[in-house]
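Q: For a teaching session next week I want to show students how multiple molecules come together into a single three-dimensional assembly. I've collected the sequence lines for a complex. Could you give me the predicted structure tokens for the whole thing so I can convert them for display?
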Amino acid sequence: MLSVLRGHDGRAVEECLETAHAMPSETLIRNETDRNDCRADGLNTILLAQAAAGDHECVDVEGSGDSAVRLKRLGICSGRRLTVLRSGDPMILRVVGSRIAVSRSLARSVVVAAVSAAAGAEVRSE
Amino acid sequence: MTTDRAPAEGTARENGTAQEHSAGAARVIRVALTGNPNTGKTSLFNRLTGLRSRTANYPGVTVEIRRGVWTDGERRFDLTDLPGLYSLDALSPEETVARRFLETDSAADVVVLVADSTNVQRSLYLASEVRELQVPLVVALNLSDAARAEGIRIDVDRLSRELGCPVVSVSARTGEGLSELSAAVVSAAGETPVLPAPSIDLPVVASEPASCASGCSRCAFAARYDWAEQTARASVDAPAAEDQISAADRLLTHPVIGPVVFLALMAGMFFLIFSLADVPMTLVDTAFASVGDFVGGLFPAGPVHPVAWAAGTVSLALLTFAGAYRLAGISWTRLSGTAAVAVASATALLPPDELRSLVVEGIIGGVGGVVIFLPQICILFFVISLLEDSGYMARAAFVMERFMRFVGLPGRAFVPMLSAHACAIPGIMATRTIENRRDRLVTILVLPLLTCSARLPVYSMVAALLFAGSPGTGALVFTGAYILGITAALMSAWVLKKSILPGDTEPLVLELPPYRLPALRSALLTVWDRARVFLQNAGTAILMFSVILWALAAWPRLPESDLPSPAADQVAALRTEAAQAAGDRAEELSGEADRILRQHQLSHSFAGRIGRAVEPVFRPLGFDWKINVGVISSFAAREAVVSTLAIVYGLGEDGIDDEASLVETLRRQKRDDGRPVFSTATCLSLLVFYVLAMQCLPTQAVTRRETGTWKWALLQFAWMTVLAWTAALITYQTASVLTSA
Ligand SMILES: Nc1nc2c(ncn2[C@@H]2O[C@H](COP(=O)(O)OP(=O)(O)OP(=O)(O)O)[C@@H](O)[C@H]2O)c(=O)[nH]1
Ligand SMILES: [Mg+2]
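A: Of course. Below is the structure for the complete assembly, covering every listed component.
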């Protein structure tokens, strides 16, 4: 499934997400996040709670309370790669080399983008 | 005292620490172990000090600071094990303890950061923070055996340069690298000043981003993780991490299959307990019975010289005290000495017959009634220990989280709830990992409802009464009792959350550790420690209970002339008949007369009066007054009910058939109307009562300590008592109707 991502832009990401069947419709993504303006490169972003299995890049963690700290100190913070291993509630992520289970309610405060093609290829060649 | 500590030995060594500290000639280096949760800090601590603190393959096992002495050749280190930290942003009580310790300048001369060799990058995050505390730091790359097996190579020198501190590869399991570690610690302790920390380009202030153009969410976390990633990439050569969920996890964390596997595992464990423990339990049982027989035979039948008798009994009693004090770690002070001498002299006043009864029925019967369950306890802890080290427990927590969340328990409550299945006390201690105070309170309050190992004897007794010796149905009773405990805990949590402790539940964030092959050695050591605690308890608390209870059941005496008239007539008739009959028949008849006498004596005794006084409370639950005595005596420790029943029913027996096992004796008991005492309905009601009742004084004390007031301990007691009584009532009444129909 991940190969779909290779060498594509934001459109391809959405295709990819739809093939994963775990995704709500495109409009829902837009409504729930409405964060497209937040990225200089115009990549579509979604909430981690909606993310399908596969690689994502963490863009932002909303809020500043203890919950946000709890996520960030585990590496769920901007710039890290989050691999969704199992979606659902709670979901399982791989981040900074370990598996982390996160409740969906917390995953709603995490904004992710599909990994850019270059970064994805780099990871695979490592 | 927490029961999860290795007993006696641990305390002895800890006491040693203080003395050696002041007396030692060379300077003792104080070393603190820190690191991410589950990187093997406690395993390393145990390896270095020879102590046995609890370890398990999931995060958040250690919640307290613990000290020990580590000797390496002639050097001596004062070692401190700390709870794990993901970062210095401590959120929960146990993290705060660890953080405060690290930030106190004078607390440690050297900090050893225990890192996970199989995931260096994650450990580097905390390392970068600890580096900035400006304490001498040594990084110990633990689990190097596991890393090697996974084909991970670490350039230790490179990493050491990047971090600006010594780095050594060690393994707490194989013991490799420990001498390098001590050398690194010694040199770090002597080195002043500390090298500057690697500079990480941290954002100065968390400025409100007006536009999200570039640095919208750049924060200290991100900066440190960027650094950790670069540093790890430069010095670690690891095969690419799989980006798929593993096959095992696919099953074990499945929303439907996961819980089914969990239940199956539990049922399997109980089946194992029953089928494997059967033979050793019978052995222990007959061993105690024949010891009782043998000892009983030692008592002189005829009159003895009073001086010789007194000297003999006093010295025997003092010997028993010496043994029990040694077991319990009580020293001979003026108080304990006086108590021992007083009780010993009192025993000398007992006539031989009475003393025989005290020793055989009171001590051997009472203690034996509990010790018999040792094999089951051992198997339980062996299996739990294997499961805990395998990494499965975190998956169990993962699949059960849905149910917990539904009733308002936080995901973090899983470790406490798992620990409470061994004993509620470490469970309550483990709630220190719960950050939210209300969540923590709810968890503490419901934890004692979960089946602890002290309930095992009761469950086992009831299972044997209900289904003689069939491991399958026995396991079913166990599973049912465990599920009842879990359900009651979840329900109670829900009620508490809806009433006095409302509020949002903390959502789950939990690291799922990698699966690891459990070490047989550590499982066996756990079993050994638990068995020792169990036997210690049987040899001290249960022994004392048994003696007191025996005394309460033996006095005041009822002279034969004071027998109530119908019984007196009956006894007289039996006696005359026996005098005319011959052989076996005569023995049988006079035995029956004795039995009636003993029964009346028993109900005339203090224990009998107490048991009968509370009859109105417990009659609706189907308990007779002897069970009531058991219920009351298990107020402080629930397993005491087994020894109490052994004593109370044992005393009521005719004394001919001393070798009968407890269950056989119980099954023989009849009510006044001739129905058996332990009918199915009574057994079930007793089981339900013991699943739900709060009968553990030490747990109450720990609840009080951890919550700060007696209020919560009392609430816990009241709630559980009401729950137990009501549920047992419903059980008994329903089962009576069903079984009579
Ligand atoms: N193979 C291997 N396993 C280890 C080693 N060290 C620890 N373990 C295992 O790792 C798990 C965690 O060990 P603990 O000592 O409890 O870890 P901890 O750092 O004290 O954990 P917390 O108290 O939760 O912070 C246990 O299952 C150990 O058996 C090691 O060197 N090699
Ligand atoms: Mg530990």
